[in-house]
């Protein structure tokens, strides 16, 4: 993502977070041969409200054509540019456990403009092995490549995540996607996005439980669910 561009246009973070969703919907429409789409159709494809979508896109200076809609190819290009996807981004995956293996083999990175170029681990038993066509190297090896414009993906055990982040930042990394549980301490100017699968499952469990209470009519004032929450 081009954070400088986002700051220049003062695009709200919530809007930035939705831009990839709009881009995915637009690409799906393009694949179906759709050239022009209304805000209502695009909003439905993206799973958002049309008024919110129009407000989001207005931050990009894109308002569509009244009575016609948005040009799919042009809007895709505008969002791609705003997200920084016209730039070549290299990805370094740190931690070659089960999750690291899976991420290294994930083809979705390349289709969205990101090239996994480096796999990093410090375990001598893993360094030098080949995973998904790439040889696993150490941080010291990575430094020799003089990497530029790297996004680091941390897939280490939680106890190793901070050290991995520190080593990546020391090499000049300013963007980190963290899959490890816990919070990373990073200096100003370093952007961290966290992917916590366990938290997402807990949120789903909450909604699943709430749905069951609703089916039994126990969400009324004074119902069993409310009483349990109060306790």
From TrEMBL:
<dbReference type="GO" id="GO:0051775">
    <property type="term" value="P:response to redox state"/>
</dbReference>
<feature type="domain" description="CoA-binding">
    <location>
        <begin position="84"/>
        <end position="183"/>
    </location>
</feature>
<keyword id="KW-0963">Cytoplasm</keyword>
<keyword id="KW-0678">Repressor</keyword>
<keyword id="KW-0520">NAD</keyword>
<feature type="binding site">
    <location>
        <begin position="95"/>
        <end position="100"/>
    </location>
    <ligand>
        <name>NAD(+)</name>
    </ligand>
</feature>
<dbReference type="GO" id="GO:0003677">
    <property type="term" value="F:DNA binding"/>
</dbReference>
<dbReference type="InterPro" id="IPR036390">
    <property type="entry name" value="WH_DNA-bd_sf"/>
</dbReference>
<dbReference type="InterPro" id="IPR036388">
    <property type="entry name" value="WH-like_DNA-bd_sf"/>
</dbReference>
<dbReference type="GO" id="GO:0003700">
    <property type="term" value="F:DNA-binding transcription factor activity"/>
</dbReference>
<keyword id="KW-0805">Transcription regulation</keyword>
<dbReference type="InterPro" id="IPR036291">
    <property type="entry name" value="NAD(P)-bd_dom_sf"/>
</dbReference>
<dbReference type="InterPro" id="IPR022876">
    <property type="entry name" value="Tscrpt_rep_Rex"/>
</dbReference>
<protein>
    <recommendedName>
        <fullName>Redox-sensing transcriptional repressor Rex</fullName>
    </recommendedName>
</protein>
<dbReference type="InterPro" id="IPR058236">
    <property type="entry name" value="Rex_actinobacterial-type"/>
</dbReference>
<comment type="similarity">
    <text>Belongs to the transcriptional regulatory Rex family.</text>
</comment>
<comment type="subunit">
    <text>Homodimer.</text>
</comment>
<dbReference type="InterPro" id="IPR003781">
    <property type="entry name" value="CoA-bd"/>
</dbReference>
<dbReference type="GO" id="GO:0005737">
    <property type="term" value="C:cytoplasm"/>
</dbReference>
<feature type="DNA-binding region" description="H-T-H motif">
    <location>
        <begin position="21"/>
        <end position="60"/>
    </location>
</feature>
<dbReference type="GO" id="GO:0045892">
    <property type="term" value="P:negative regulation of DNA-templated transcription"/>
</dbReference>
<keyword id="KW-0238">DNA-binding</keyword>
<dbReference type="Pfam" id="PF06971">
    <property type="entry name" value="Put_DNA-bind_N"/>
</dbReference>
<comment type="function">
    <text>Modulates transcription in response to changes in cellular NADH/NAD(+) redox state.</text>
</comment>
<dbReference type="Pfam" id="PF02629">
    <property type="entry name" value="CoA_binding"/>
</dbReference>
<dbReference type="InterPro" id="IPR009718">
    <property type="entry name" value="Rex_DNA-bd_C_dom"/>
</dbReference>
<keyword id="KW-0804">Transcription</keyword>
């Amino acid at each position: 993502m081009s954070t400088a561009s986002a700051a220049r246009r003062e695009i709200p973070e919530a809007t930035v977070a939705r831009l990839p969703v709009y881009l995915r919907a637009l690409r799906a429409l393009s694949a179906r041969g759709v050239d022009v789409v209304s805000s209502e159709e695009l909003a439905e494809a993206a799973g958002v409200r049309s008024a919110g979508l129009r407000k989001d896109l207005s931050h990009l200076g894109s308002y569509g054509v009244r009575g016609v809609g948005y040009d799919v190819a042009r809007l895709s290009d505008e969002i791609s540019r705003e997200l920084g996807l016209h730039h070549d981004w290299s990805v370094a995956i740190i931690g070659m456990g089960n999750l690291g293996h899976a991420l290294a083999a994930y083809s979705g990175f390349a289709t969205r403009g990101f090239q996994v170029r480096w796999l990093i681990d410090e375990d001598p038993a893993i360094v030098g092995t080949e995973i998904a066509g790439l040889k696993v190297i150490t941080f010291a090896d990575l430094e020799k490549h003089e990497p530029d414009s790297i996004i680091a993906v941390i897939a280490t055990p939680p106890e190793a995540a901070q050290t991995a982040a520190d080593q990546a930042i020391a090499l000049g990394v300013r963007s980190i996607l963290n899959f490890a549980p816990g919070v990373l301490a990073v200096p100003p100017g370093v952007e961290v996005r966290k992917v916590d699968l366990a938290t997402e499952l807990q949120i789903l469990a909450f909604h699943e439980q709430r749905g069951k209470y609703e089916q039994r009519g126990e969400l009324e004032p004074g119902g069993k669910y409310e009483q349990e929450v109060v306790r």
